[in-house]
């Protein structure tokens, strides 16, 4: 996979600068990464000067789109906060949140509207913890063919964290949902430009009250980075990140289905298996994107790697089931003709990443295509051909790495 | 190691070292939030030169930085027209009407020109 290839490059735009100045300004050094997006542009800058963040793939400065460098996924199943991907729709996000003045409002079709401080939220409700993958609907959009416009992500618009917070159900119960409620709408502190539609999303009332959807105030044991939604973020296990509202400060119980732009028009997928359709196809019924599908990746080998023939080849990576756990991960060394089960690592929770490992032996010198396939607990396996839709959503084709054995 | 051994043999040592508090604080009490202020970088790359580049710079950078455009795949004129329409009609970008043709023209050609 070309997205691992990194080249170091020095941008010498400031020609008037002396050598000493260059030495003392390490930010002038630009590490580039090639995401391998077909047809390009595929090169991105690795940026280290975003607040709260270590090295990230810069997709857009404003509003911030930062991708997790893929190497991070080889280090463990929990993605560190300082390399967790960042995605904002609008550039108008507060650059600070006053902890003491912050309030989470619950209102609408309820008996008792609430305004909860952070302290109340933490003290008055049972704390729950859950590992869950947060994945952008358009993760891997840049690999779509034909290409589609949008955030041109590689595979790093995803991450897994241990979230801690309170159940949404408990908060809704405190407010007392009135009968006739159909959906719950969530919004955060970010603002849209002028009259543009604010980024707000809704869940059906039964989903919102399922006891799994939570309001997180901690991520991997710490408060959330502001760029990932400090102080509160909605966690919707098994569903795409578009529903995981950041800087959550408003919960509105609706007695009508939400017809706002971000539910009715945006983030729609074809209502077909794998959200798949043909380019140019018309009259395809579209529905709001929802549950995630299984994915898996090889994280310790890159395309072009030279490896030993006739010896066990350590092959490892991550998998996740989507809206349920990982049932099995299979590995192929012959381009998908035959498959062998991989060994699964510790189960940290059905909604999280699961590490897997295998030691296939490549029988002779030559070129090999290694593949990995996840089957989830619902029996759904990754497809061997990529899906396509105009939004660039829900890519989950079987991934491969080409190596040379010698 | 059993609990009993822990409490008898090691607990006093840990307490003496200050490694354990006498009453373990509940998570609620230990979850202290800290207000932080961040400053977002504003570095922006420039657009490749070409007819219409000024119209793009003037109209397209209020809501997003240049990389949103620079990293798009090559789109047809029809594809770019759809994108510009969406920015204006859905996202309410205040684009000057007279600049629209130049913007679409630039976007249609800048990827090829860059190669």
CATH superfamily of the largest domain in chain A: Oxidoreductase, molybdopterin-binding domain
Secondary structure: helix percent of chain B: 40-55%
Q: Hey, roughly how much beta strand do the residues of chain B contain? A: under 5%
Give the domain tally of chain A.
3
Estimate the mean pLDDT confidence of chain A: 93
CATH class assignment of the domain at 53-114 in chain B: Mainly Alpha
Q: What do we call the CATH topology of the domain at 53-114 in chain B?
A: Cytochrome Bc1 Complex, Chain D, domain 2
Count of extended strands of chain A? 26
Class derived from helix and strand content of chain A = mainly beta
3D shape of chain B: elongated
The separation of the N and C termini of chain B measures: 67 Å
Low-confidence stretches of chain A: 1-28
Oligomer: heterodimer
- Helices of chain A, by number, come to 5
Q: Number of helical runs of chain B?
A: 6
State the shape of chain A: globular
Walk me through what this model shows.
Chain A has helices at 19-23, 118-124, 168-175, 205-208, 261-264, and strands spanning 6-10, 29-34, 43-47, 56-60, 65-67, 86-87, 104-108, 114-116, 128-135, 158-167, 183-188, 201-204, 214-219, 233-235, 248-254, 268-270, 286-288, 295-298, 306-307, 315-320, 326-332, 340-341, 343-344, 354-358, 366-376, 399-405. Chain A has three domains: 2-87, no CATH class; 104-288, Oxidoreductase, molybdopterin-binding domain (Sulfite Oxidase, Chain A, domain 2, Alpha-Beta Complex); 295-405, Sandwich (Immunoglobulin-like), CATH 2.60.40.650. In chain A, strand 7 (104-108) and strand 8 (114-116) form a beta hairpin. With 406 residues, chain A is mainly beta. Mean pLDDT of chain A is 93; it is low at 1-28. Helix content of chain A is 7%, strand content 32%. Chain A has five helices and 26 strands. Chain A starts with 5 loop residues before the first strand and ends with a strand. With 115 residues, chain B is mostly helical. Chain B has a domain at 53-114: Cytochrome c-like domain (Cytochrome Bc1 Complex, Chain D, domain 2, Orthogonal Bundle), CATH 1.10.760.10. In chain B, helix 5 (77-89) crosses helix 6. Chain B is elongated, with a radius of gyration of 29 Å. Chain B starts with a helix and ends with a helix. The relative contact order of chain B is 0.14. Classes of the chains: A mainly beta (406), B mainly alpha (115). At the A-B interface, strand 4 and helix 2 of A face helix 4 of B.
């Amino acid at each position: 996979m070309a997205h691992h290839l990194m080249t170091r490059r020095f941008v010498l735009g400031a020609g008037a600068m002396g050598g000493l100045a260059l030495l003392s300004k390490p930010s002038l050094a630009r590490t580039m990464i090639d995401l391998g997006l077909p047809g390009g542009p595929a090169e991105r800058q690795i940026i280290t000067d975003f607040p709260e963040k270590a090295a990230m793939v810069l997709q857009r400065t404003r509003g911030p789109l930062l991708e997790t460098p893929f190497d991070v996924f080889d280090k463990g199943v929990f993605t560190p906060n300082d390399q967790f991907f960042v995605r904002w729709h609008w550039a108008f996000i507060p650059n600070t949140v006053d902890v003491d003045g912050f309030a989470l409002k619950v209102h609408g079709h309820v008996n008792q509207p609430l305004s909860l401080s952070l302290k109340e939220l933490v003290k008055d409700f049972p704390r729950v913890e859950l590992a869950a993958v947060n994945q952008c609907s358009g993760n891997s959009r840049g690999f779509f063919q034909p290409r589609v416009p949008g955030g041109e992500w590689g595979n790093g618009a995803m991450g897994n964290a241990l979230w801690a917070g309170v159940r949404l159900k408990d908060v809704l119960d405190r407010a007392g949902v009135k009968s006739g409620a159909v959906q719950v709408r969530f919004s955060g502190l970010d603002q849209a430009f002028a009259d543009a539609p604010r980024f707000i999303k809704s869940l059906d009332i039964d989903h919102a009250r399922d006891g799994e959807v939570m309001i997180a105030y901690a991520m991997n044991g710490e408060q959330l980075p502001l760029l990932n939604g400090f102080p509160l973020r909605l966690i919707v296990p098994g569903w795409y990140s578009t529903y995981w509202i950041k800087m959550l400060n408003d919960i509105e119980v609706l007695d009508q289905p939400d017809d706002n732009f971000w539910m009715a028009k945006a983030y729609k997928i074809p209502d077909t298996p794998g959200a798949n359709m043909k380019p140019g196809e018309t009259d395809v019924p579209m529905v709001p994107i929802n549950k995630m599908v299984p994915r898996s990746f090889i994280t310790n080998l890159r395309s072009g790697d030279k490896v030993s023939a006739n010896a066990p080849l350590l092959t490892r990576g991550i998998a996740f089931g989507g809206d349920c756990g990982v049932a099995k991960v299979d590995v192929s060394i012959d381009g998908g003709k035959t498959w062998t089960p991989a060994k699964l690592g510790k189960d940290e929770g059905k909604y999280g990443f699961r590490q897997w490992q295998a030691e296939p032996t490549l029988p002779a010198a030559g070129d090999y295509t290694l593949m990995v396939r996840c089957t989830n607990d619902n029996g759904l396996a990754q497809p061997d051909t990529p899906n396509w839709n105009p939004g660039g959503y829900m890519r989950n084709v079987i991934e491969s790495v080409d190596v040379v054995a010698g | 190691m059993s609990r009993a051994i822990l409490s008898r043999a090691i607990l006093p040592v840990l307490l003496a070292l200050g490694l354990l508090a006498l009453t373990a604080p509940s998570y609620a009490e230990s979850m202290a939030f800290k207000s932080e202020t961040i400053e977002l970088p504003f570095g922006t790359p420039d657009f490749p030169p070409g007819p219409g580049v000024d119209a793009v710079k003037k109209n397209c950078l209020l809501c997003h930085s240049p990389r949103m455009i620079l990293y798009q795949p090559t789109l047809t004129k029809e594809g770019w027209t759809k994108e510009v329409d969406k920015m204006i009609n859905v996202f309410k970008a205040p684009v000057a009407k007279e600049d629209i043709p130049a913007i679409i023209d630039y976007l249609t050609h800048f990827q090829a020109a860059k190669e």
